[in-house]
DNA sequence: AGAAGGACCAGTGGTCCGTA
DNA sequence: AGAAGGACCAGTGGTCCGTA
């Protein structure tokens, strides 16, 4: 019954991205241009799934191997792109990746509003419930394994956009794949944590857009390991308990 | 492995209540006297379980039906007691009930310290993990169904001890049973919520000792229903959405 | 009857691994 | 090979109901 009501609500309320949007909002970092790109990409996707040729005019890219019809659809894989760069071909760029995190946030806010309206328990994080809601709202390209996989990349983007951007440019130039870039995102995050007393949970919870995401296990472990190293070289008692800073 | 390590830690660290404690701390509300009472009760319990007669001197109450040995042991049922009153016979009083909540808080703090030490996810609430830890630490009289059952009673005790105390005295005088008293605890809580914009989650999370407990479903529902009532008699549009206060 | 708590269950966080 | 995500699993929050 709670699920049914969710269904009802998810049919309205959840607008698609606006089809047209002013181009001048482009460089604003909020994903302004992105909305347009996302819409284009989505149309491509839709055309592919339906299996007809497009009935509205558009710039297209590849249309080969369109023959299928009911074949398994996946999102295009990510590639390392510079800030503002749109991926060409059957690829998605990193601005799009980060845009997905913003979309999840919007879905969470909607779920929270519904919960409050009904006096039910209100999630503070992006939970299974939110992923389910997103899927029902038609955002089938959002899923938990993907979002969890790249959380720390998004975290770096939120916490230090300059460093994040520099890293993207460097890895693009070197022609690295997404997995390698993703791995590289850990290091600057650990450095940020070091400066803030190693409390990665506090770092996440303090940031308005990051606070809704669970700290990834591996990032937590890296921070802990690095803290132990730092502490070992600072303290004389190697076996003693690690004492957190108190400033 | 995480479980094994927990075992190791739970063997040390977890002190029993101090056996002796100054009597002058009695009326302080922190459970000062309670420690002594709890210890006495625990000795009774231990003697019963072991099935021998006591090998240390004590004032005892009933010792009948001691014959068993491996019979199923349960905590004595609660009765409505006034503040400061110790239950006589095979009963437990409400100061003891509230004391259990404080104990859970101590166990949570220990679990949190261990988690932090290890760089693991750190619970902010009394979770299954904490109940498991309490059990391993020997506090077998603490269990989840019991603690959840009386959370709102403890909440009233935390939020308005005067009202809570008055309620206890009134219900004791009337000879009401625990279940009736428990039910009666909801109403003043809803009244408190009304004064604070109906946000029972905020009320819990704001209070230092209450913030570690999940808001009980029924209390949440009562607050929501009552808010709807209040709103219906205030607003002219009966079917409209309920707008939260913004002060 | 009133009450304590073992034990169950639906849905969670977490991520592996069969898939493309 | 590199990557996306369906689907599984251990342990959770929640509380019912067989027990005393």
Automatic annotation (TrEMBL), chains A, B:
GO terms for molecular function: DNA binding. One of its GO terms (biological process) is regulation of DNA-templated transcription. Transmembrane segments: none annotated. Residues 12-85 are annotated as: Disordered. Residues 55-68 have a biased composition (Acidic residues). Residues 65-230 form the Floricaula/leafy DNA-binding C-terminal domain. It is found in: Nucleus. GO terms for cellular component: nucleus. Its main location: nucleus. Probable transcription factor. This is Floricaula/leafy-like transcription factor. It comes from Tetracentron sinense. The chain holds residues 132 to 378 of 378 of the full protein.
